[in-house]
Amino acid sequence: MSARRSVDRRKFLAGSAGALGAAVFGRLPLDLLASQGAPPQARDWDAGRVRHLLPAVSDTRLLLKASFDRALSAAPTLRVGGASVTGRMNDTAGEYWQFYATGLQPARRYELSLVGAGGAALCEPWPLATFPAPDARPERFRVLFFTCAGGPGGTYAGIGERSGFLPTAIRNRLLRRALSFGPDAAVANGDHIYWDLHTWLGDNVGELSAAGRTSNFDFSASVFGAHNETALKAAAGPQIVPVYGADFRSTPVAFLQDDHDHWENDSVSDEIANFPIPWFQLQLARATQQLYYPEFLPDAARPAGLPWSGTSDRGDLSESFGTLRYGNLAEILLYDVRRTVSLAGPNAVFVDRQVESWLLDRTRSADTRHLVHAPSNPFGWSAGKWGEWYPDVLDRETGALTTALAKDYWQAGWLRQHDRLVEAIAGQRERAPLVVSGDLHAIGMGRMHRAGALNFSARPVTAVLSGPIGTSVRGFPSVVRGVGATPPEHLDMEESVAPIEDHGFTIADFLQDRIVLRQFRWDVDRQPVEAIDTLEAFHTAELPVPG
């Protein structure tokens, strides 16, 4: 088919937002937002009217999120092999749609195509495979892990010359290099957008941030409809669409939300506690997920009644807690630590107790060769910020983290839950204990030998910081917090890769007898952009299966 490129994106966005959009984003011209949100040019594939595609799969299901270059007046159709799935509109304008297919065959490569209501192709067909059945015995499962791909587009003028977040074109280039290694799935672990609505540092703490004032949300109104929806799309879209486009159309993704995905930083002061998240921002977080990236598909081993699962508007999908199950070879447990956080002192938790029970049950199970924890809040290291598992805080006089000073508003129950989880992870006798985390804006790897009174020296837990894709100049811990990611006093960590504040990603190969971890880094201050296209692993580690 020939792609139809007749729509001028700037005119389209300005037209759809109209005078109302200009009022909402008076300080950010809509044509600038439109240019920042332009999808990357697809390679050897005709995207037609598609702006972005992000799929999730299990062994028998497929969920696809898609957006188009202009509103569709009638529902499009996704053809999956010989079956057809009618799209469900996810916004009020008809730009954003989802397609949910069930009853598929495990380990089958399907040809997918999108057609409009009149039968015309909306893009070129493409392939996508389902995962093997839970009792299948695949030989290999390759997963791409990364974090912090969000942020408004920054500038880059050459080595060492940039401002703001990494430009979206460079983020896309990093992800295309990662995709060149042929992962079977990808885990995007948190911070897909940055548009924090309140000030947490400096002047006017607790008041609306510059972003909050600019977007001019009506906190008493619905997120969908009128100017709130316009503001949401204008703020979030340029941070997601140009980073992914349709590049992941054949690579299933799992998107975990973290603090910034709830439109706030995990911070606290006498004036404001940003978590538990206020109701309106919770609706913004849910709406962002609804529009742009897939929720988690059902899994027979995951209770259907976990929090934020099976809600009336999402059916049997889960918003915050998910599973990647690839035959009997590997299971990856994905959990958002922000959505159910509590402030209850010694009884506080990051993940609801029911979620914790599921995590412990799966960790103690024996029906997969490998089991990996993938929380949105990192195990193994601290940057001294409030919403961490650990009580360490920066001593401004020494420049080091310490527990000798109180971390205001930190909850002792968080660390207790950490220890319950890590004790179960280390207790796996026939697996290599592994945690791959997001959030911390660094690439790192180490082995945890002790957590408080718990001794893991006989079977250390490997902890991995997956690597950030879009972190801004001020986003690295050593810049914004005055200290880099550091092992907390609660742990004994053997660091094979002390956290590195570069952009990068991690690729994990799950084999029957071992896990192979490869970490990739690109130094924006010392390497040209062209070096991304030939990046190779700077560190490789093998984790053999015990026995």
Radius of gyration from the CA trace? 22 Å
CATH topology: Purple Acid Phosphatase, chain A, domain 2
Q: Low-confidence segments, ≥5 residues, pLDDT <50?
A: 1-23, 26-31
The helix content, as a percent range, equals 10-25%
CATH architecture identity: 4-Layer Sandwich
Shape: globular
Main sheet?
A: 8 strands, mixed
**Termini separation (Å)?**
54 Å
Mean pLDDT: 92
Count of DSSP helices?
A: 9
- Find the count of extended strands (DSSP E, 2+ residues): 26
What does this structure look like?
This protein has 547 residues and is of the alpha+beta class. It has one domain: Metallo-dependent phosphatases (Purple Acid Phosphatase, chain A, domain 2, 4-Layer Sandwich), CATH 3.60.21.10. The chain has helices at 9-24, 30-36, 168-179, 210-215, 226-244, 279-292, 353-364, 412-426, 477-480, and strands at residues 50-57, 62-68, 77-80, 83-86, 88-89, 96-101, 109-115, 126-129, 140-146, 155-158, 161-163, 185-189, 253-256, 321-326, 330-335, 370-375, 393-395, 400-402, 434-437, 443-451, 454-455, 461-466, 491-500, 503-511, 514-522, 539-544. The strands form six sheets. Strands 14, 15, 16, 19, 20, 21, 22 and 23 form an eight-stranded mixed beta sheet that branches. The longest helix has 19 residues, at 226-244.
